[in-house]
Specification:
Elements (H helix, E strand, L loop, with lengths): L4 H17 L2 H7 L3 H7 L4 H4 L7 H22 L3 E2 L14 E2 L3 H19 L2 H7 L11 H14 L4 E2 L8 E2 H18 L6 H18 L2 H10 L1
Length: 225
Amino acid sequence: MAINILIIIILIIVGISLKAFNDRPFLDKMLYVPYLCKKDGQYYRAFTHIFIHGDMGHLIFNMVSLYFLGNSLLTQIGGSYYAVGDPSDVFHLNDGLIPTYGNIGGQLHFLTIFVLGGLFATILPFIRNQDNNQYRSLGASGAVSAVIFAAILWNPTMELNIMFIPIGIPAYIFGPLYLAYEFYLDKRGNTGVAHDAHIGGAIFGVLYVLIINIDKGKELIQLVF
C-alpha cells in the first residue's frame, strides 16, 4: 500500500490532540506562546502547537477540512491527470494532460505546504504578541489554511460546499470571500480565534504554488478576467 502523507499527518495530529485533552501539562508545553519564544527561546512552540486542539469540535473541523481539500490537492499535484471541460479551456495543455510531480514529489510538496504553512502562519501573531505574556494559541488551522489555498489556486474551478449553503461555490470565488471575512473578523477582534494565522497560512499556500508553478497564477488571471 502506498504511503499517504495526508493520512499520516491526520493520524499524528489526532493522536497527539487526544493525549493533550487529558494531559494539561503536556498541552501547556505544546502551546504557541510568542512571549516565551522571544523571552526563553522556546521557538519549538511555533511547530508543536499545530498538533494540539482546544476541543473535539476544533479537532474534527480542522481534520475534515484537511482531509477533503488536502486529498484534492494531493490527487492533482501528485500525478498527471486530464482536466474536465472543453478542450479549449485554459486548464488544458496540448492534449489535455496536465503534468504534475509524481507520487513522491506530490507528497513532498504537500508536506512542505503543511509544515511551512503552519510555521509561516505564526509570524504575524508573533509580531503582534511577542511582548504579551497572556497570548496562547493552538491548532492546525494555519497549516490547514495553507493547504486549502494551495488547493484553491491549483484548481480554482472546483466547487466547495460549506455547511448551511446547499450549493457549491467555485473555489476562485470562495477564496477571496473567505479571506475578506477573516480580515473583517481579525480587525474586529475579540473572537478568540487567531484569524491572522489563518490569513498567514492562506498567503503561504498561494505563494508556494506560484513558486513551483507560476502558470497556476496565469490561469487564475485568465479565468477571472
